[in-house]
Specification:
It is found in: Cytoplasm. The protein has 4 helices and 5 strands. It is of the alpha/beta class. The protein has one domain: DsrEFH-like (Hypothetical Protein Ychn, Chain: A), CATH 3.40.1260.10. The longest helix has 10 residues.
Amino acid sequence: MLLTLSHSPFQTDLPALLRLAGQGDDLLLIQDGVLAGLKESAALDWLLAAPISVYALKEDIEARGLIGQISDKITLIGYTTFVMLTVKHTQHVAG
């Protein structure tokens, strides 16, 4: 399953979204959701504790001036990989 987070982790119940995730699922941080990947944040701790792969859209990080502030444990991707993730997963949950 592909989970996407497009809202700030401060405005979303991130733990509830992560409870839907299982082994082998992917989470993509987009729009204001990229804030969940900030170094040394509680949201990042939740993401890294989940049994999922976590990606962030590089263009959204750059648009918010956050390059260098995102954890290196988050894989930065472009739109091509975003499309590949949507093709890979038949189910999608947005948060």
